[in-house]
Amino acid sequence: MASRWWSQSVLTGVPMGVVTALVAALLTRAIGGPSASDAAICIGFVGWAFGFLGGMGAFRYPRTLLLARPDPTAEEEHQLAVQGGGPWRYFRFTTDHKVVGIQYLVLGLVLFAVGGLAAMLIRLELLRPGAAAFPPATYNTIVGLHGIIMIAGTIIMITGPFGNFVVPIMIGARDMAFPRLNALSFWLLFTAVPVLLCAPFLGGFPTGWTSYAPLADQAPPGMDAFLVTILLFGGSVAVAGANIVTTAITMRAPGMTWTRLPIFVWGAAMTASTLGLMVFPAFMAAMVLLGLDRTLGTSFYVASGGGSAWLYDNLFWLMGHPEVYVIAIPAFAVIMELLPVFSRKPLFGYRTAVASTTAIVGLSVLVWAHHMFVTGWAPQLNGPFMLTTEMISIPTGVVFLVAVGTLWRGRIWLTVPMLFVLSFLWNFVIGGMTGLYLADVPTDYQLHGSLFVTAHFHYTLMGGALMGFFAAFYYWFPKMTGRMLNETLGRIHFWVTQVAFNVTFLAMFYVGLQGMPRRVADYSAQFAAGNFVASIGAFVLGAAMLVFAYNIVSSWLRGQRAPSNPWHAKTLEWQVPTPVPLENFEETPVITSWPYDYGAPEPTPEGAAERAPA
Amino acid sequence: MDAAATAGRLAAAGEGVEAQHRKLRIGTLLLIASDVVFVACLFFTYLYLRALNVEGRWLPAGVQPPSIASGLLLAGLLVASAASYRWADLGIRQGDQRRLQTGLGVALGLVVVELLYALWQLTHLGFGPGSGTFADSFIVLTGYHVVHLLLVILLGGMVLNRARHGRYGPGRAIGVELVGYVWYWVALMAVAMALLALV
């Protein structure tokens, strides 16, 4: 066991990672010669990840197994879970799921801050035609960084923090199924961040987050950083996915049947299984082939060598389209989780909600080629893919029916989390309805390369998924930190965000319909007004996020202490004390009813006493 | 809460041996599932490029694919190895330590032979990366197979070492079973690769 406070922490991980990276890169360069510079960069980054994890102590247990040493004792397991307590445990290989949840939360917020800053820079460039805040190559890299950081952040933002912190408690478990893998998934994700942030210093990458070939084949070495980032991120979500799904299947408390499972657990498990295990490996395969094209001279995506950019398109969108649907699933689950609490009514159509969510996940893997309507790939398949894409609006509509049915004649309690739930419903309807035009082949031909797509995408991911995150954040923050967020600042954050968001992206719809292409650093004067409005909206949106950031920091440090169940909710996480004890429960709970029996028409103090029967 | 209390509470919570084993089986199979998807994408790549490259572009002049017999030999070696591993796994469930170690040793030896043969094949192909899409697809599939073999050797070596230290026995051989899942999957991939040569 680690004896000094600094050992086997980021203080040892980072130096070991850097040294390993340098050694690996220099060795590769020495063996391969000058032509191996891309390979040296890739191998150096992989070396960084291994070295960092080694320095963090992530390989202690595998070494124990390999050398046939005795299994860790209960004392050692306990030490690994608490890591001496105190704030420093957040910088170590700590296995307690609550620590990992907080780690994910903070890293996710940092990613959003960086991605958001990139968004501000993009809107600065597009503030007026002819602006030259950045050279075109730098602008392209900023767009790519914004895209991939926000996509990665959106993938982890709900299942990472809340899937780790809340799910085990919700199902009556003492930890995740595999605590070590849990810590590994977080720290593997952590290793990907500096790799991606190295990209601008290696010439950047001109491809955007989609990293389309063959442009990616010809890109500067920043592309190597991008592809290694995806491999590390993919490894992290695969490990996390296996862990969350196994936890949901095997760790439920006695009596927690599938039909009593909180809807959020369904959402987290479906997302984890689909994203981490079923679709992200396709992106990883695409990146491996790209890496081979760039380092060994293969021609998977190079037409002159017999390869095909369509191959990349297929592999990428085999991941990409399930992904952009499935990352909204946790947000769906959050709103369905919160609606009964703040409507004081049972969830309307629980089984229908589960079935619809399953249908969305199932259909999402059958729609990928709608991104390729204009590429000329298999035009005879345009019709079937249009059909499957439009079919997905049916289960999505049913989820909205569940939401509205739960709201119907409820006693709405307009807390800040509930405000974000309602904004999700508003924004996602706009995102979904505009998506139909892009699923439709003739209109997609007209709109595909325009900012209309960007606006649609942001309405689903930011207006939808991110609002779900905000709802979850305001809802579970008291349980995770023991502090209440400031209500007034929360409301300011909400209203400014909603207005600014809609101004920004409605303006973007407008210029998109006018025909303004996306992925450009400059544009014709006819699009000036719409872009000016969008940029001003974006800057106000950025200011709203500063309010949010201030609220987090000030409330976390000196906010009002949270009671154990401030929302009078019935799921298990609200029945345990705050802060949550190491093993969550004094005694294993026995579940005898589902968690949405809100009989009281309004939140009352008596409601707090209604607990899941034990 | 101290460690003794932790262990006691875990036992009280029904985190017994069977529950632990079920958890480990499901987790392992899920991780293998993600690898299956990855490999499926490599197979898709092979088939996609095979369909795209007609009129001699699949096999440019000078590129001769390895014989089908060679693929079958590689698959056969791994199937035999997996069978030996399974025999060892079933043996330890009955408490037969000698059978465990013998079976593991044979299985591991066959994988090492397979690895050496695969490496020899890769370095004696007569073509390399950039020699057309067949060459590229073949090299990436075989290369990933080599990665799999290295993983199997690492895991197999670990199981053999732990077996030598008496870490397994009836009711406590879940580690052998879990590594077996990886072993069988890698053997299955070898068979699929041999069949791919027929396309």
Characterize this entry briefly.
The complex is a heterodimer of chains A (614) and B (199). Chain A has 614 residues and is an all-alpha fold.
Q: Work out the helix count of chain A.
A: 23
Largest interface: A-B, 58 and 51 residues
**What is the C-level CATH assignment of the largest domain in chain A?**
Mainly Alpha
Straight-line N-to-C gap of chain B: 62 Å
Order of helices and strands of chain B: HHHHHH
User: What is the chain-wise order of helices and strands of chain A?
Assistant: HHHHHHHHHHHHHHHHHHHHHHH
Fold-level CATH name of the domain at 67-199 in chain B: Four Helix Bundle (Hemerythrin (Met), subunit A)
Mean pLDDT of chain B: 91
What does the model show?
The complex is a heterodimer of chains A (614) and B (199). Chain A has 614 residues and is mainly α. Chain A folds into two domains: 12-58, no CATH class; 100-599, Up-down Bundle (Cytochrome C Oxidase, Chain A). Chain A contains 23 helices and no strands. In chain A, α12 (263-295) packs antiparallel against α14 (329-343) and α13 (309-326) runs antiparallel to α15. Mean pLDDT of chain A is 93; it is low at 600-614. Chain B is an all-alpha fold and 199 residues long. Chain B has a domain at 67-199: Cytochrome c oxidase, subunit III, four-helix bundle (Four Helix Bundle (Hemerythrin (Met), subunit A), Up-down Bundle), CATH 1.20.120.80. Chain B is 77% helix and 0% strand. Chain B has six helices and no strands. Chain B has helices spanning 3-12, 17-52, 68-93, 97-123, 133-164, 174-196. The longest helix of chain B is centred in the first third of the chain and has 36 residues, at 17-52. Residues 1-9 of chain B have low confidence and may be disordered. At the A-B interface, α4, α11, α12 and α13 of A face α1, α2 and α5 of B.
